[in-house]
Amino acid sequence: MRAHPLRLQPGQDLRDALEETTRQLGSQAAFVVQGIGSLGVAQLRFAGIAQPTELRADLEILTLAGSIAPDGAHLHISVSDAAGRLYGGHVARGCIVRTTAEILLALLPDHAFSRETDPQTGFMELRIRARDA
User: Fold this and answer.
1) Statement: residue 133 has pLDDT above 90
2) pTM above the 0.85 mark?
3) How far is residue 99's CA from residue 67's CA, in Å, rounded to a whole number?
4) Which structural domain range is residue 123 located in?
């Protein structure tokens, strides 16, 4: 495992930036270990709902975790607003960094991830393989 700390800048799309960073690093398997920072816009897909919900406010990122494969990321986030209300769900495209996002990626050079339809769940799920040397 190789650790890769990362800081995202204001205006960056959280999901796009994480996927692009792992591509640029040549990683075929990565995990977001943790992330903190802030968002001005959050696009969260709540459990059991197909479309994301947009939140526009000054939001603090309390937790961020997930996996990143070359064909996409599966990320979960919890954010709080100025009143302390907590929201959490899947990270969709359109989560825009407000001031900063400080993230620790764990790159797994001996593995390759992909997303494939799981007949049991009907969803695109993580497939883990040993990476060819």
Assistant:
1) no
2) yes
3) 24
4) 2-130
